[in-house]
Amino acid sequence: MSQLPEARRALLDRSGCVVQKLLPFVQDAGSALRRRGVARTLRNCCFDHRHHEWLLSEQVDLLPFLLLPLAGPEEFPEDEMERLPLDLQYLPAEKQREPEADIRKTLLETLLLLTATKPGRLLVRERGTYFVLRELHKWEGDGGVRAACEKLIQVLIGDEPEAGMENLLEVEIPTEVEQQLQHLDQEEEEGEEVEVLLGGIA
User: How does DSSP classify residue 128?
Assistant: First the structure.
């Protein structure tokens, strides 16, 4: 459903606070289905780069909700800890990562979308995202998730794109490739987001 522009507009309506109401369900321990649906909804919303700065601002504060499921119980040096969002500092020894590999991958894909614009990259870098990803990469056993993690790390530690290419979402994608990706996503998401949006914020 969030693949449709009309649905994304409703979700991203800044007066309705719909996105903010969905965020806690990224960590709904009682339902992997709901976590998966919310993660995919957030990812689809992030395809619209015009909202990235708002999503990363204090009004929504999306970044900690994406990073916390990817974080484990590792301790960080003080200089690294200070750069992390408050919700990711001094996590307890029993902290566990999101157990479902596909959800971890979706969260990484969402973070990657948020780094598609220069302001997004700068903010995601400044808040210590690399440190969380570094530890995730050491722990991660799923090849697909590791690859997604590596791609995001490359964006965060790599050189800035050349002039005129700063917005990676404006790089043209072949129509047939885009249609294939949309078709695959639609098959996976059918039915999941309906439960999330109807049951999650009722």
Answer: T
- Candidate CATH numbers 1.10.3470, 1.10.3860, 3.40.50, 1.25.10; the one for domain 5-171: 1.25.10
Instruction: Supply the pTM of this predicted model.
Output: 0.80
Please tell me the distance from the alpha carbon of residue 23 to that of residue 34, in angstroms, as a whole number. 11
Nearest to 38 by CA among 149, 185, 192: 192
Q: Which single residue is written with the structure tokens 């395809």? A: 47
Q: pLDDT of 36-63, one tens digit each?
A: 999 999 999 999 899 999 999 999 999 9
DSSP string, 1-43: -TTSHHHHHHHT-TTTTHHHHHGGGGG-TT-HHHHHHHHHHHH
Alpha-carbon Rg for the chain in angstroms: 16
**Cα separation of 46 and 58, whole Å?**
17
In sign, the C-alpha dihedral spanning 143, 171, 45, 160 is: positive
Say how far apart CA 115 and CA 90 lie, in whole Å.
25
